[in-house]
Amino acid sequence: MTAILHEIRQLDAARKRGDISAEEYATARGRLLASVEDAAVEPQEPARHAARGRPAPRRPAARAARPTPKPPSAPSEGTAPDDMSGFWALILIGLCAAGLMTFLVGQLIGDITIALTLAVTVFAAIVIAAFQRMQG
Q: Could you list the pLDDT tens digit for every one of the 136 residues in the chain?
């Protein structure tokens, strides 16, 4: 498996250098991936059963068939195409952190307006950095 991954990396590098075309790359990569057989691994239970003096239970052999890819399904009604619950959780955490930062800085310097300004500035910088990281 390591040799195949190494060959795929070499193919990727050759494609990036322009040594091979996209069609040649796709054919070579498909040939490499097709050479990998699906493995069926069964749990190692015979030793445990042998220690008890009983034969291991027989299990049917697993078929070595490749799974068929599922067609993309349309989102069900009432749900967004991408999960927004993580986004709203981050918003809630950010608001709680901004409130806590405002309160602590306000207690430290004694002026809630300056503390709120500092908190908004810090969180705006965090949001801008996050968007720049997402783009690049």
A: 678 788 888 888 888 898 888 888 888 888 888 887 765 656 665 555 555 666 655 655 555 555 565 555 555 555 555 667 787 888 888 889 889 989 999 999 999 999 999 988 988 888 888 888 888 7
In contact, 64 and 42? CB cutoff 8 Å: no
- In the structure encoding, which two tokens stand for residue 92, read together? 């809630």
29: Cβ contacts below 8 Å, ≥ 6 apart: 8, 11
Inter-residue contact 103 to 90 (CB < 8 Å): no
3-state helix, strand, coil in the chain (%, to 5): 60, 0, 40
Instruction: Report in angstroms the alpha-carbon separations of 78 from 63, 72, 81, 82.
Output: 39, 18, 10, 12
Spans of all domains in the chain: 2-37, 85-135
